[in-house]
Amino acid sequence: MSLKNDSFPSSEAFDLIKASLTDEKERTSAIKKGGAIFAFTLTNPKNETETWYIDLKSGGSVGKGLGPDGKKADIVLSLSDENFAKLIEGKANAQKLFMSGKLKVKGDIMKASKAETILKAAQNKKAKL
């Protein structure tokens, strides 16, 4: 089942991340590097919001909402759909977006810095397509 929402073009990245985590080796490595549940709340030009999670704490799952099976995200990253697309494409830096107020973080800021590692998995998967 696709996680893409047509109102949020960059949401296709969550399908790519999910696909990269189907590989046992990549999933184990991502969980080791991530160690948290990351939630991404995106806002589109119509000011609608949608949230997706990446569980790199235990299961290596990806889905819609703040976390899997009622679990709570350790880190919630809020940004525009456009800036999320730029992050996925490697055209933006999370730290610069944060410093300019375009990326808001709730939760453990140190763990939030690991989010870029996860997003690189989507970049690599997209590059292979």
From TrEMBL:
User: According to its UniProt record, where is this protein located?
Assistant: Peroxisome
Superkingdom assignment? Eukaryota
Specify where it is mainly localized: other
A single Pfam family it belongs to is SCP2
SCP2 domain boundaries: 19-120
Instruction: Write the signal peptide boundaries.
Output: none
CC per GO annotation: cytosol; peroxisome
Which PANTHER family does the record associate with it? SCP2 STEROL-BINDING DOMAIN-CONTAINING PROTEIN 1, STEROL CARRIER PROTEIN 2 SCP-2 FAMILY PROTEIN
In Swiss-Prot or TrEMBL terms, this protein is called SCP2 sterol-binding domain-containing protein
